[in-house]
């Protein structure tokens, strides 16, 4: 049985982490060690980074090297199988609730692209337009429109169309996919789903019946056009750790239905500009850098809103140095500054007070401006025809080559 956070009600927990709420009492900072213990997943240590490098002959992604992806379930089994010459497929997704993505939304897609390239495996990307229709009070039409808009941002990350199938639930659910949903639903009691997700009597039944929809893309038979006759194909899911409850449930029922348990590789939350209080808020435009932000917007947001660990005066800063534990510009650099040596140089100089907050923010503004501009150019090149092509239900004959 997968470990579940069913022992305490959500009110009693020091921190609540589920797909719809991320909060912690006191400082508001998520304790990831405690979360690993609470969820029952494992920490991703250096041995995995070294092994990925050995198996793929590619430099491990910055998010792997720097523990952005820090936890896993059965990633070792995926690597064991790969070493034996067995293939797997990737599954990730996005709940399309806003027009534009922020940098936190890009993190799993940037990492998934690396995994797809490094291991040369197929990928399915689920757009849960049905979920957002139910949770965000959007109309069906608006949810479907946002799914296509978000698909353009996802395609702009550079996925290989010969190995990638993007689908929206409103368009794709049916057939073998729906059969698997019903099989999962029969295995999960109401008490169990309340224990895992914290649903209450006030939640409508659409929410309670949704988890199987996100579960079954991890079963290969949900995609007969891709994986016909490959029911034992393993699945690896890169995602943020708030999605873990869905897959604890899935891993519990998978063996009862004759499938392998999906493996997971899970990331930290990308912190808000104002500080590490869980996830960024889509309702507060100044809490995040969006892929639609201009260079001027980025400069303004970083300078005005990025929480600094620097001291209150230059004199004190030179004396005591910056508190890198809380400094958001430095944390953002650790996500996006590729050069390990430069990051280490900034860590030493800024931490000792020899480098000032303004210098660190300037370096961050340059890096984020370049990243966002590159993404914007790539997205501008994505046409509606390209979206249709990625979302077409079709075989991918070269997906493992």
Distance between the termini: 36 Å
Structural class, judged by helices and strands? alpha/beta
Shape: globular
Major sheet: order of its strands?
3-4-9-8-5-6-7
Please report the total strand number as a whole number. Answer: 9
The percent of residues in helical segments reads: 40-55%
Please outline the major beta sheet.
7 strands, mixed
pLDDT under 50 segments (min length 5)?
none
> What's the SSE pattern?
EEHEHHEHEHEHHEHHHHHHEHEHHHHHH
Global mean pLDDT: 94
Task: Indicate the topology.
Blueprint: E1 15-18, E2 21-24, H1 32-39, E3 42-43, H2 46-56, H3 62-65, E4 69-73, H4 75-83, E5 88-94, H5 103-119, E6 123-127, H6 129-135, H7 140-155, E7 164-168, H8 169-172, H9 175-187, H10 190-197, H11 205-209, H12 211-215, H13 224-227, E8 234-240, H14 244-253, E9 263-267, H15 295-305, H16 314-320, H17 328-336, H18 340-352, H19 357-380, H20 384-391
Parallel strand pairs: 5-6, 5-8, 6-7, 8-9
Antiparallel strand pairs: 1-2, 3-4, 4-9
Helix pairs in contact: 2-4, 6-7, 7-20, 15-19, 17-19
């Amino acid at each position: 049985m997968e470990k579940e956070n069913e022992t305490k009600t959500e009110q009693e927990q020091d921190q609540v982490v589920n797909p719809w709420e991320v909060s912690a009492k006191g400082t508001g900072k998520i304790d990831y060690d405690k979360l690993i213990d609470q969820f029952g997943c494992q920490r991703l240590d250096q041995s995995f980074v070294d092994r990925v490098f050995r198996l793929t002959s590619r430099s491990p992604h910055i998010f792997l090297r720097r523990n952005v992806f820090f936890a896993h379930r059965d990633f070792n089994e995926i690597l064991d199988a790969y070493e034996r010459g067995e293939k797997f497929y990737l599954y990730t997704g996005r709940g399309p609730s806003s027009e534009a993505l922020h940098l936190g939304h890009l993190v799993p897609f940037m990492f998934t692209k690396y995994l797809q390239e490094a291991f040369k495996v197929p990928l399915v990307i689920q757009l849960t337009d049905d979920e957002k229709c139910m949770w965000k009070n959007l109309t069906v039409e608006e949810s479907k429109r946002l799914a296509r808009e978000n698909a353009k941002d996802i395609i702009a990350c550079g996925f290989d169309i010969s190995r990638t199938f993007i689908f929206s639930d409103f368009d794709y659910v049916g057939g073998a996919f729906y059969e698997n949903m019903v099989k999962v639903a029969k295995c999960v009691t109401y008490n169990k789903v309340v224990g895992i997700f914290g649903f209450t009597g006030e939640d409508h039944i659409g929410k309670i019946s949704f988890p199987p929809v996100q579960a079954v893309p991890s079963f290969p038979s949900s995609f007969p056009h891709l994986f016909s006759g490959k029911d034992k194909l393993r699945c690896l899911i890169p995602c943020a750790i708030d999605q873990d409850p869905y897959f604890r449930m899935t891993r519990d029922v998978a063996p009862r239905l004759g499938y392998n348990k999906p493996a997971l590789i899970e990331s930290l939350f990308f912190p808000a500009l104002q500080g590490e209080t869980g996830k960024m808020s889509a309702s507060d435009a100044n809490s995040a850098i969006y892929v639609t932000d201009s260079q001027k917007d980025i400069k303004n947001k970083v300078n005005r809103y990025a929480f600094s660990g620097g001291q209150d005066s230059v004199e004190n800063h030179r004396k005591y140095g910056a508190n890198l534990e809380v400094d958001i510009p430095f944390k953002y650099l650790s996500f996006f500054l590729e050069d390990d040596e430069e990051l280490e140089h900034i860590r030493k100089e800024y931490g000792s007070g020899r480098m000032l907050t303004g210098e660190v923010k300037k370096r961050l503004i340059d890096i984020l401006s370049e990243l966002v501009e590159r993404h914007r150019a790539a997205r501008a090149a994505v046409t509606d025809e390209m979206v249709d092509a990625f979302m077409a239900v079709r075989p991918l004959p070269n997906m493992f080559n």
